[in-house]
Design brief:
Oligomer: single chain
GO cellular component, one term: mitochondrion
Helix content: 25-40%
Structural class: alpha+beta
Subcellular location: Mitochondrion
InterPro entries: RRG7
Protein name: Required for respiratory growth protein 7, mitochondrial
Largest sheet: 6 strands, mixed
Number of helices: 8
Strand content: 15-25%
Strand order of the largest sheet: 1-2-3-4-5-6
Shape: globular
Order of helices and strands: HHHHEEEHEHEEHEEEH
Number of strands: 9
Radius of gyration: 58 Å
Pfam family, one: RRG7
Length: 291
C-alpha cells in the first residue's frame, strides 16, 4: 500500500521525446559519396524512343496504297466466213468434133465441109473471134448451136483492179453491113442467158462483127439499158474497134480504155490495145489464155 501511494506522489517527468530523424542534404550526400554529384546523375528521358526498324524494312511516312487491278473483258468478234463465188456452169459444146479453130479446120478438111457454107463461115468466125479476144484477157467458149438463144460465146473477162471477173456473153455476126437491129437482138440474149450470166450486175454483152460500127449502132448502144459493147474483128483475126456504153463501165469496165500501138501486129502497122488508167495493158499469151 505504501508503494502505490508513493507512485502517485511522483511528478511527471516532462513531455515525451520524439524519435530522432535522419536528415540528408545534397551536401551531406556529396560528403558521403564524393563521386555522385547532381551533374553526374543521368537525366530521365521524358520522350519514349521508337524502336529502330530492321535493316531490310523500308519506312514511309504514308502507308502504301493498295494496287487495284482492272480486268478488261474484250468482246470476241465473230469471224465472218467469206463465201466464194460458185463456178460457172457452161452449156454443152455444140459439137464433139472440135473445140477451137485448129480442130475445126481439121474437122472441116476431113468431112469436106464447103468453105462458103453458112455453117463453115459462122463457125470459123466464132472461133476466130474467141482466139483474138483472148489476147485482151477474155476467156470465151463457143456455145452456139441450134438452141443457143442468140448466144455464140460465153466466158469471163479478167481486168486489173476489178473486184471480180466480168462475165461476158457475145454474139458473132459475120455480115457485111451490121445495123442497129443487131443491138436489139443482143438485148434479147440477156434474158435468155444461162443462170451464171443472167442479170445486169457484172455481165457485159458484146456484139462482134467484121465491119466497124455504124452511126446507128453507136447510137443504139448508147441508148440501151443493158451493159453492152461492140467489137470489130476481121476474118483474119485483127481486132480493129472496141467500144462500150456507160452501163458497161458500171458493170466492171470502169478505168479501162482503148488506144493504138504503132509497130505491132507483126506487120509494122498499128494495133489496138486496151489501157488501164492511161497505161497500155500487155497482151495475154496463148498459153496463159488457155490455162
Amino acid at each position: 500500500m505504501r508503494l502505490s501511494l508513493l507512485a502517485r506522489r511522483l511528478p511527471p517527468l516532462g513531455p515525451p521525446i520524439p524519435p530522432a530523424r535522419h536528415v540528408f542534404s545534397s551536401a551531406a550526400a556529396a560528403r558521403a559519396n564524393p563521386e555522385c554529384t547532381p551533374e553526374s546523375q543521368p537525366h530521365q528521358q521524358l520522350s519514349q524512343e521508337h524502336p529502330t526498324p530492321p535493316n531490310n524494312a523500308t519506312t514511309s511516312p504514308n502507308p502504301p496504297t493498295p494496287t487495284t487491278t482492272t480486268t478488261t473483258t474484250t468482246a470476241t468478234t465473230p469471224q465472218t466466213t467469206t463465201t466464194s463465188t460458185p463456178p460457172l456452169i457452161y452449156p454443152s459444146a455444140p459439137s464433139p468434133h472440135h473445140h477451137n479453130l485448129p480442130t475445126f479446120l481439121t474437122y472441116a478438111a476431113r468431112t469436106n465441109l464447103d468453105p462458103h457454107s453458112t455453117v463453115y463461115v459462122g463457125t470459123h468466125f466464132e472461133y476466130t473471134a474467141s482466139a483474138s479476144l483472148s489476147r485482151y484477157g477474155l476467156a470465151l467458149r463457143r456455145v452456139g448451136g441450134a438452141s443457143d438463144n442468140g448466144i455464140d460465146l460465153l466466158g469471163v473477162w479478167a481486168l486489173p483492179g476489178a473486184v471480180a471477173e466480168v462475165r461476158v456473153l457475145a454474139q458473132c455476126k459475120a455480115v457485111q453491113q451490121p445495123g442497129p437491129r443487131l443491138i436489139r437482138e443482143l438485148e434479147g440474149a440477156f434474158v435468155a442467158a444461162p443462170a451464171g450470166w443472167r442479170g445486169r450486175g457484172g455481165v457485159v454483152g458484146l456484139l462482134v462483127a467484121e465491119k466497124h460500127a455504124t452511126r446507128g449502132i453507136r447510137e443504139a448502144l448508147a441508148r440501151s439499158r443493158w451493159p453492152m459493147g461492140f467489137v470489130a474483128c476481121s476474118r483474119a483475126g485483127a481486132v480493129e474497134q472496141f467500144l462500150w456504153n456507160r452501163r458497161a463501165e458500171k458493170a466492171g469496165l470502169e478505168g479501162v480504155g482503148v488506144g493504138m500501138r504503132y509497130g505491132g501486129g507483126g506487120g509494122g502497122g498499128q494495133e489496138l490495145v486496151l489501157t488501164w488508167k492511161g497505161r497500155n495493158l500487155p497482151f495475154v499469151r496463148a498459153e496463159e489464155a488457155s490455162a
